Amino acid sequence: MNYKVRKIFAIFILTILILVATTNYYGIRGIDNLAYVVAIGVDIGENENLLLSLQISLPGGSSSESSSSSQSTSVVVESVECPSINTGITLFNSYLGKEINLSHCKVIVISEEFAANGVSEILYTLTNAIQFRTTSNIIISKCDAKSYLEYSSPLLDKISARYYEIAPTSSEYTGYTESITCNEFLSSINSNFSSPVAILRFNKFS
């Protein structure tokens, strides 16, 4: 009799735990409450601050054929001036109404002007974020990073996340680019036998 009571009690507790876990996931951290970042842009802002730009994926977005620009409408670029990356993410969370999620970030675009002052602090801050993937590629842009995110558009792919993922891997069949990940870059910084390099991009805007 005691065994049956314990078994029923254990099943009851397990059911409660599953219900609570499921409710928390969909109610608090559901997909509708998250803003998925596909690309990060870093520029020099005013008063020696940094200008942080995020290219955010819009669920259900589609490409607009009638738009004068070839930029996909499935993403939006938002920017904010801030003293640090963490402060910028907090500001985005406060006014976007959704929680910023970096788990789908494919690329970090840093303006050449900003990169001249060093990028290690920015990269270390991002890699300390639990959601951020160190396999994200690093691009140094001749133009400002915000403009790069706004005007960079895929010719054969409508989804920006997929575009950023495929572009660096073109090094497998061309000699014009290279796949440089955040992890490789930081490893080179701490290495005595190699120097860090990144992808350099020239963008022409119409």
Describe this entry's structure for a reader.
By secondary structure, this protein is of the alpha/beta class. The protein has one domain. Helices cover 35% and strands 21% of the residues. The chain is built from 7 helices and 7 strands. Strands 1, 2, 3, 4, 5, 6 and 7 form a 7-stranded mixed beta sheet that branches. A hairpin with a 5-residue loop joins strand 1 and strand 2. Helix 4 packs across helix 7. About 6% of the residues have low confidence.
Structural class: alpha/beta
Q: What is the β-strand count?
A: 7
Helix content range: 25-40%
Shape: elongated
End-to-end CA span: 80 Å
| C-alpha Rg (nearest Å) | 21 Å
* Total tally of structural domains: 1
Largest sheet: 7 strands, mixed
Average per-residue pLDDT, rounded, comes to: 77
Number of helices: 7
Share of β-strand residues: 15-25%
Spans of at least 5 consecutive residues whose pLDDT stays below 50 are 61-72
Output the helix-strand order.
Answer: HEEEHEEHHEHHHE
Keywords:
alpha/beta, single chain, 7 helices, about 210 residues, seven-stranded mixed sheet
Topology, element by element:
Blueprint (H helix, E strand, L loop, with lengths): L1 H27 L5 E11 L5 E8 L17 E8 L2 H12 L2 E3 L5 E5 H4 L4 H8 L9 E5 L3 H7 L8 H7 L15 H8 L9 E3 L5
Parallel strand pairs: 1-4, 1-5, 5-6, 6-7
Antiparallel strand pairs: 1-2, 2-3
Helix pairs in contact: 4-7
Brief summary:
This protein has 206 residues and is of the alpha/beta class. It has one domain (32-201).
